[in-house]
Model the fold of this input.
Amino acid sequence: MGAGGGSVHDRESEPGARPELVTDDIPAWLRGVVERKPADPTGVNQVLNRSAGKLVAAALRPRQAAVLVLFGGAPEPDSRAPGGLPADADVLLTQRAATLRQHSGQVAFPGGGVEPADSGPIATALREAQEETGLDPAGVEPIAVLPKIFVPPSRFDVTPVLAYWRTPGTVGVVSEAEATRVVRVPIAELIDPANRFVVRHPLGYMGPAFAVDGMLVWGFTAGVLAGLLAVSGWERDWDHHDVRDLQASLAAVGMTL
Done:
């Protein structure tokens, strides 16, 4: 995972496969998340260390999936901001439909399970994002592929694909059966210490959370975001000792567990 110079591209699975991993002309303000592995300096992010491990029985093997972590914002860094973060920087999130069987109502990155025709995780992430949000994949530049993270409730082994939207297009809810909202959340809101805390699940899970745009971002999505922010150069100090009840935090924004 890197951002070397030149015009080298990393093809996914076979000669001529598309799409490719862009490794040149990456905005300087995004190089922190591209060149560094997501980190957990606070010790509260359980998501980053989840691995499917050695699952012997075929019936227990996780299904492969990928999500698109799509950043937008001016290509030029803001010299006045930490890490050069431009004022218009954002990330694309969806809120899953309450009727879905798994992770219903949760805030998520666009993404889903690998299909046989997909050439790799980049193709999966772009296809799913197009199906869920209507984005044009031609305008998206994949810039890094992160290590897989296991999601126990759904038994998915998820590959986060980082990407940059040099010229953002129109997005929205394509199918209400899949998502109720499609939102470009400003990075400035995610790094605001007032919007960050830790949530505790009734079953004992604890992890980072964000309260933004009338939504609570927690679980896998919050874990990936927190891990990226920790190495981005944009992050501001926040109180990771502020632990709140998950159900109460969800209720505060009109969401349920």
